[in-house]
Write a structure and sequence with these properties.
36% of the residues lie in helices and 14% in strands. By secondary structure, it is an alpha/beta fold. It has 2 domains: 271 residues, Type I PLP-dependent aspartate aminotransferase-like (Major domain) (Aspartate Aminotransferase, domain 2, 3-Layer(aba) Sandwich), CATH 3.40.640; 137 residues, Aspartate Aminotransferase, domain 1. Helix 5 links the parallel strand 2 and strand 3. Helix 1 runs antiparallel to helix 3, helix 3 runs parallel beside helix 11 and helix 14 packs across helix 16. The protein binds pyridoxal-5'-phosphate. Pyridoxal-5'-phosphate binds next to helix 4 and helix 5.
Length: 429
């Protein structure tokens, strides 16, 4: 199944990008565990290298199993094209790569996955890139942070760790006004809960490590392009709008809606090599078949646990946007109508010490630095994932020292509540 835009989400998550294997009829996409692909003849090889004919050359660029997954995520997001990468963090570098150059910057939300804050505030400086962090609820500050060297705006749809929901429509309007692409990390929401392209996003990035695979077996990522941004409208994106010396002078913009995706394959994957492996793509293809079913249960369980916690006197606050008490509750219906996800934080009376004791006393929740697993997970962000940040950065990111983050799984919800109840009794004794 390749082009069938009329199918619903539940159909696409099983069929998009896949067809029975032409060699064997195998119904599940085979793991094409191969590095290279035989050319029919010298002319075929030349055409492939010239992008005149689409086909497989070498698995650092494309591989049939990985391509099936890229096509499926692209279909679920409603994009024009996409690539898969070795991790979510690789996807973020890959997403920025066609847009950036030394001296260029991005404007990023303060509410991001901790590892992304570190990647953007420290590591990308080695490339001569930089990030300015802004509270995306302060639209004036966002607009004023943009300067002549800005090349992208970056945020998460449902932001880690606090379950904050970004007003994508408002941010996209500012990005469009400045002639800049909006990149949305849609990891915590997944395309089932939020479709950023419908709110004006240009690119979507994913950590496939999380809900897309769903069971904590894979490290992977994806970059999906809407195909709607006009790279030639300004001189800001020469790698896409001008002849590209890194690909014998090809002007990628001439490829229309596939310009960005072909650039990502022909230059990004070719030269940076942040490629997903076929085995990983296979696991994610299997996991993604049940994405909507899992997300429905994740959301239902998260709502029930958050509501229970909010009423408990041992808890100081719960940040789940699915609760009516959340300042972002009114964004749920507009931005993520099928639910506010399953990731949130809560404050424990007793602060840092009580949080650490809570994490140590839980029996069913796993204490891990991950999210989006079938299992329920908990972490004390301030002492782990957000440890590299200053206390002010921790608070801004929604990871204050008295908060724990949970990723609610798809177990029986009464068992999750009972586990929290017994552990809170120990933690706050
Ligand atoms: C996990 C995560 C990442 C990084 O993904 P990896 O696959 O671990 O590299 C980026 N953004 C968000 C929102 C995440 O949850």
């Amino acid at each position: 199944m390749t082009d069938a835009p009329d199918y619903g989400f539940d159909t696409l998550q099983i069929h998009a990008g896949a067809a029975p294997d032409p060699a064997t009829g195998a119904i599940q996409t085979p793991i094409y565990q191969t590095t290279a692909y035989a050319f029919r003849d010298a002319e075929h090889a030349a055409k492939l290298f010239n992008l005149e004919e689409i086909g497989y050359i070498y698995s650092r660029l494309t591989n049939p199993t990985v391509s099936a997954l890229a096509a499926r995520i692209t279909a679920l997001e409603g994009g024009a094209g996409g690539i898969c990468c070795s991790s979510g963090h690789a996807a973020q570098i890959m997403a920025l790569f066609p847009l950036m150059g030394p001296g260029r910057n991005i404007i990023a939300s303060t509410r991001l996955y901790g590892g992304t804050v570190t990647q953007f505030s420290q590591t990308i400086r080695r490339f001569g890139w930089s990030a300015k962090f802004v509270d995306f609820d302060d639209l004036d500050a966002l607009e004023h942070a943009i300067d002549g060297d800005t090349r992208a705006i970056f945020c998460e749809s449902i932001a880690n760790p606090g379950g904050y929901i970004t007003d994508l429509d408002a941010v996209a309007e500012i990005a469009a006004g400045a002639g800049l692409p909006l990149i949305v990390d849609n990891t915590s929401a997944t395309p089932y809960l939020c479709r950023p392209f419908e709110h004006g996003a240009t690119l979507v990035v994913h950590s496939a490590t999380k809900y897309l695979t769903g069971n904590g077996t894979v490290t992977g990522g994806a970059v999906i392009d809407s195909g709607t941004f006009d790279w030639t409208a300004s001189d800001k994106f020469p790698s896409l709008s001008q002849p590209e010396p890194a690909y014998h002078g090809l002007t990628f913009a001439a490829l229309g809606p596939m310009a960005y995706t072909f650039h990502s394959i022909a230059i990004g994957l070719r030269d940076l090599g942040m490629t997903m492996n076929p085995q990983g793509a296979h696991y994610t293809l299997c996991g993604i078949e049940t994405l909507s079913l899992r997300m429905e249960r994740h959301v239902a369980n998260a709502k029930a646990v958050a509501a229970w916690l909010e009423k408990d006197p041992r808890i100081s606050r719960v940040t789940y946007a699915g609760l009516e008490s959340s300042p972002w509750h009114d964004r749920v219906a507009r931005i993520c109508p099928k639910g506010a996800g399953a990731l949130f934080t809560f404050g424990v009376k007793g602060g840092y010490e009580a949080c650490v004791k809570l994490v140590d006393s839980l029996k069913l929740f796993s204490h891990v630095a991950n999210l989006g697993d079938t299992r329920s997970l908990i972490i004390h962000s301030a002492s782990t994932t957000h440890r590299q940040l200053s206390e002010a950065q921790q608070v801004a990111a929604g990871a204050a020292p008295d908060m724990v983050r949970v990723s609610i799984g798809i177990e029986d919800v009464q068992d999750l509540i009972a586990d929290l109840d017994q552990a809170l009794a120990i933690a706050t004794a």
